[in-house]
Amino acid sequence: MANSIYSINKGINQPLTFKGFKAHYITYLAIGLVALLLLFACIFMLGIPSYISMSGVLIIGVIWVRYIRYLSDKYGQYGYLKKIARSRMPDSLLNNSRKIFIAPKETGKTHKRCTEICRKYSQFTTWNMIVF
């Protein structure tokens, strides 16, 4: 049998990187640059001189790239998504009634589901022992 040479892929489970931008920040950068291209096209069609529109779009582009680089360096691969998810979480859940813990609804799909589960697991005698 002849000797075979296999290359080893050392980039497994590593985040996608491009010039220092990690993971989904590459997408944010691409969307921003496409938006800047469309902005330049709209400004150019309005008849504003190209050197003014080019300089404005260039300044906004530099600010956008620096902002995305800042987010990529600060939060890493999934940190910004976790920050957004954390900000959408409620501070607390309020419940002013114990009714939902005392007995399940007697009508609708919930009651049918509860009775089916009770029949299936007949060894449980109380509602609070069943995990839904």
TrEMBL record:
Spans traversing the lipid bilayer: 25-46, 52-68
Pfam families: DUF4133 (PF13571)
Keyword Transmembrane in annotation: yes
Keyword Transmembrane: yes
Domain of life, source organism: Bacteria
Keyword terms: Membrane, Transmembrane, Transmembrane helix
Protein name: DUF4133 domain-containing protein
Organism: Sphingobacterium humi
